[in-house]
Amino acid sequence: MTRYLHHRTARRLVGLLTAGLLCTAGLAAPSALAATAPAASAEEATTPPAAPAAPTLDDGLALTPPMGFNNWNSTHCRAEFNEAMVKGIADIFVEKGLKAAGYEYVNLDDCWALPSRDANGKLVPDPVRFPNGIKAVADYVHSRGLKLGIYTSAGVKTCNTAGFPGALGHEYSDAQQFADWGVDYLKYDNCNNEGVDAELRYTTMRDALRAASATTGRPIVYSICEWGENRPWEWAQDVGHLWRTTGDITDEWGSMLSILKRNLPLAPYAGPGNWNDPDMLEVGNGGMTDTEYRTHFSMWSIMAAPLLIGSDLREASDETFEILGNREVIAVDQDPLGKQGAVVSSEAGRWVVSKEMKDGSRTVALFNETGTAQRVSTTAKAVGLKGASGYTARDLWQHRSYNTAGTIAATVPAHGTVLLRVRADSRWATHPPAVEFGLDARPFVVGGQPATLTSHVTDLGRTAAKDVSVSLRGPEGWKVRATSPTTARSLPTGRSLTTRWKVTAPEGTEPGSYDLTLRTRYRSPDGQRVQNELPLTATVAVAPPAGTSALSDLPWLSSVNGWGPAERDMSNGEQAAGDGAPLTIEGTVYRKGLGVHAESVIEYYTGGQCETVTAHVGVDDEAHDTGSVAFEVWADDERTAASSVLTTAMPAESLTADVTGATVVRLLVTDGGDGSTWDHADWGDIRLSC
């Protein structure tokens, strides 16, 4: 689906949706209000489904994942979506080198047509948005060496509330119009589908596109956008070239993360001409950090996902162009072998995903979903490489190669990804050794009191790291002093330089997060010099008060939420802060508590001074009959309490978690394994005893 609308408003329209009378902007319609692709927990994502039958769609199209642009994420149906924008994007593709990097399609989403067909039943382009018609736009895009895509829905109307005509019952006529206009790509949505069988609807349009292509000689890439609700990966190999596996993405970390986890287990279904589509890119739209956008781009690439830019490139930053134009990362996505990366391991938010490449190498993503830097590690053997005397690991964001004895590891910043291309290489010794460095624990500081931090620098290479040094820098006014050696003449394979530091924030420093930078320098035996920096975060924290406190009254360290912000003492309203309602589970109202939306993580600093967390947990009554969630409490890296999967039909479940000695308590809510639609989760009367 391609629309955005407040979920609560959308749910009030369920009856109309089910009847096929209305499909709201931003919401999966008819049965999409239930599950999309099944969500994967960290453990489940490591177990792929049975391999599918060999695909039978064999027309030579989309042999690598399509790359291009779609306007929806940046413009929706606003007036700036028009002919000038589309032509401008085509120009930018050429001028900024994106065409040369592989981006090919410039795709129109909803709202390009008038709400009514003409007297002959033909689609009519909006004369205000596209005064010269779609063919003229296609001709211009083609003149720039690019291709044009268009949008419609497998229903009587498209998803926008204005009610633009869909293609259900008009498949052959519409497909012929598209081909006559010079369209090269069709995105076929799922709204207002009248309850007609999905496979039938999408197969009919496949046949219509084939017929139109036969008369015009213009092949059209076919993108099935039915949100994964009918498991298209199991039946669409001979129907479309790509299929959406989830509902819509939004420009939020929680949304991107949830979609990533649902798409990862589907690796066996992807291949040339058949791609799992986790939705368009949000890179550059402003809702995430550049670190998060690099993760977004890295993980979409290792999943062999379509790379459809969703930001308005006319206003994009240099950093956005740098991310989208990284040709080494793009090469991972576009590798002709066509393998989707598979999960090697996933523990406590530390993910290793490996993608087999045509040249025999493996691309390895070390992905940290947590809110603090983490060491993520694996081995060459674990990612599928054969034994060798040494390996070359190419960092695809640093654009630098290192040698390794077989360990593949990095301290990865919060929400970050280190992307490496690793191969057995007889010339490994021409590269400097890989060195992994970081802090041994999450840094917490109390203003005016020195905190002891410990750093490590470890040689992972087959050769020694020479003249090794390490430094730690804090914010202005902070005192940072090493209390043990910061240099080593030589570090052989597997050896570490360990340094202890005294870090003192000024008295009265406000609670919050503050930047630290850990830097290491060394040289290889043949004299190549290497300098790397690792951005870290120190937290100035306040210990919770003695006694029993409502957690909604205490400051949290961090909060990640699936839709909108987490709320204190009210339910999650999905949009702006404070838009929730009283926390209510099966008619019981809780005056205190936390309202969230799966997938959600809230962290609290407890400083080793607390003993228990208690709560009454469940799906908020405002979720009607569609929510399903599961709750977990973690004490540092140990899960100490978990609920069953709870639905709107169930009363609150009581949780008690032993958090004795924990520095950080994490409250997790997952989507119950069936997608996150309307997963409003309440931590009713949640309390911390210290």
Structure description:
With 690 residues, this protein is α+β, with helices and mostly antiparallel strands. It has 12 helices and 39 strands. Strands 7-6-5-4-3-2-1-8 form an 8-stranded parallel β-sheet. β9 and β10 form a beta hairpin. The longest helix has 19 residues, at 198-216. The two termini are 47 Å apart. The relative contact order is 0.09. Mean pLDDT is 91; it is low at 1-48.
Q: Low-confidence spans: pLDDT under 50, at least 5 residues?
A: 1-48
Find the count of extended strands (DSSP E, 2+ residues).
Answer: 39
Give a short account of the largest sheet: 8 strands, parallel
Q: How much is the radius of gyration in Å?
A: 26 Å
Question: Termini separation (Å)?
Answer: 47 Å
Please indicate the percent range of residues in DSSP E strands (runs of 2 or more). Answer: 25-35%
Set out the fold topology.
Elements: H1 7-11, H2 14-18, E1 67-70, H3 72-75, H4 83-95, H5 98-101, E2 105-107, H6 133-143, E3 147-153, H7 171-181, E4 185-189, H8 198-216, E5 221-224, E6 242-244, H9 253-263, E7 275-277, H10 290-302, E8 307-309, H11 318-324, H12 327-333, E9 342-347, E10 350-356, E11 362-368, E12 374-379, E13 391-395, E14 400-404, E15 407-412, E16 417-424, E17 435-439, E18 444-445, E19 451-459, E20 465-473, E21 479-482, E22 487-491, E23 496-504, E24 512-523, E25 529-540, E26 548-550, E27 558-560, E28 567-568, E29 583-585, E30 588-590, E31 593-597, E32 600-605, E33 612-619, E34 628-635, E35 638-642, E36 646-647, E37 653-658, E38 664-670, E39 680-689
Parallel strand pairs: 1-2, 1-8, 2-3, 3-4, 4-5, 5-6, 6-7, 18-25
Antiparallel strand pairs: 9-10, 10-11, 11-16, 12-15, 13-14, 13-16, 17-19, 19-23, 20-22, 20-24, 21-23, 24-25, 26-39, 27-32, 28-31, 29-30, 31-39, 32-38, 33-37, 33-39, 34-35, 34-36, 34-38
